[in-house]
Amino acid sequence: MNPAISNGGRRSLWVLFWLLVVFLYAPIVILIVFSFNDSEIVSFPWLGFTTRWYHEFIAEPTILSALWTSVKVASMTALVATALAIPASIALVRRRFFGKGLVSGLLLAPLVIPLVVLGISLLILFNFVGVPLSPYTAAIGHVVIAMPFAILTMVPRLERIPAALEEASRDLGASSMTTFRLITFPLLVPALISAFLISFTISFDELVIASFVAGKQATFPVYLYSQLRLPERLPLVIAVAVVVLVISVIVVVISEVGRFLSERRLEAQTGVAAEEFGSMRTGKG
Amino acid sequence: MATGASAPAAVPRRRRRRGTARVNLGLLSVPMLWLVLFFLIPVILVAAYSVGLLTLISYDKYLSLQLWRDFLHSSTYLGGPLGHGLFWKSMKVSLGVSITCVILAYPVAYMLALVAGRRKYTLLLVIITPFLTSYLLRVLAWRVLLNPQGVIQEVLRGMGVIGSDSTVHWMYNSIFAVYLVLAYAWVPFVALPIFVSLESLDLQMLEASSDLGASRWTTFRRVTLPMSMPGVIAAFVFVFIPTIGEYVTPQIVGGKSGYLFGNVIQSSFASSFDWQLGSAMSMFLLITVAILLAIFGRYLNVRTVAE
What we know:
The complex is a heterodimer. Chain A is an all-alpha fold. In chain A, 78% of the residues lie in helices and 0% in strands. In chain A, helix 3 runs antiparallel to helix 8 and helix 6 (135-160) packs across helix 8 (176-205). Chain A is globular and about 70 Å long. By secondary structure, chain B is an all-alpha fold. Chain B has a single domain (81-305), classed as MetI-like fold (Orthogonal Bundle), CATH 1.10.3720. Chain B is 70% helix and 0% strand. Chain B is built from 13 helices and no strands. The longest helix of chain B has 38 residues, at 13-50. The two termini of chain B are 34 Å apart. At the A-B interface, helix 1, helix 3, helix 4, helix 5 and helix 6 of A face helix 1, helix 3, helix 4, helix 5 and helix 6 of B.
């Protein structure tokens, strides 16, 4: 007897699972379908297939410039957040120091701060210091919220890299820097890529902080949000939305699958796989 | 670091230990500095600003608790009978949304962690992917579905469930829409910590429980559920806290009756110049969050969130 589930229970849980999948994906699929409807109203009746909303958006310079602003902000954010998360994760995983709980609390605190509070705080900071608002100030804010995610991506990977490898390197005479460059960093690369992509998507999607501190040069979500007041713009906005959504899903899936595969390879290389195998076997019984 | 090429074995132990402190400082200084400059100091500035220790725009009051008093006593925001006021409305919505998410996500996380077998990570990715795509666009999708001319209401009209001229008012620009869309947006995220806590469960404990004669239901109630509580609480807190300040979803699908505390804060900056009042309110929000974290903080560690 499987103590976790009966056969009937198994079936109903599968049904629940697929219901949740439908609930999660149906709105997105419907949005995509109706973005091809030849109608000013994004709904029934279906007036024929068209790609004109897509053509119109490609010809619209304000949308393209908002997208470009977002790409710039997201690239800066991802670069800085990833770069800052490397030393922070190493300190959290490999080092022992006084006040570690406090430090990790501060590093992860932005995860649970209502974004509206952070947006206002940054607005007041930049006003107080006299820094003009720009895509750069938005990127500064985005780094704050992306860094915890970057750290959370790297910490599990670092924990799986045996510290013995680094100790061996140091025993053989390499400095900490050399050890990092030749041992830790290469093993950390897959997590770095994931952290970069996650930070990028967080920043690219972020509306609240950007609307407070991006200034006059709107990022894509800020632009999209401002267009919602004009119903006649909705089909166009949705066409752009669909393109961005599809691209972001592709990026996310690739990065997650890549991370999973590299994780397995690392396990095979370092031999932690035995433990996983054990739990998998009991999982089957 | 300059002496990196020389053999470290030659370095006396004492100097290595002092070096350790320097390494820690070196590793943590820049990330911590960033958070101090762009997270801690700004928050302190908002606190100072809300009581007029500093002023920014011409409407600002210098050294005054009046805005805090206004806010704490106003019946629209907080005061009046307990449970009225927008702050409490926001708390209720967040509570409802978090509970709904946990109830929706728990059975699925349970299925993935304990029943699904080897495909569990792939299927988990299927659940989580929507969370990693644009929040704004997912909310927008519901606007397309729910509005009076939207897909759902047109289908209902077409099927004759509602008259061809009538609309379902509670479906759009309503508090229902806010609940629905927020739950939709956060369910994938909730599944994750619950999955992690269930996955790390030792299956031999479940076997032991059943060997000792417990039914599956008893095993679940006495073993599985209590042991997954840290994940459940982490999931709950991770939805509850960010949604208290939510204003985007209410603005897109909530209309007037979906107006929440976050909307007042946002509009005090975006459409009126009540910056100090807005600051006082966001400080109040932050204090609420801090209290919640103090209560639930011990369940929130790297383990429960990291995949």
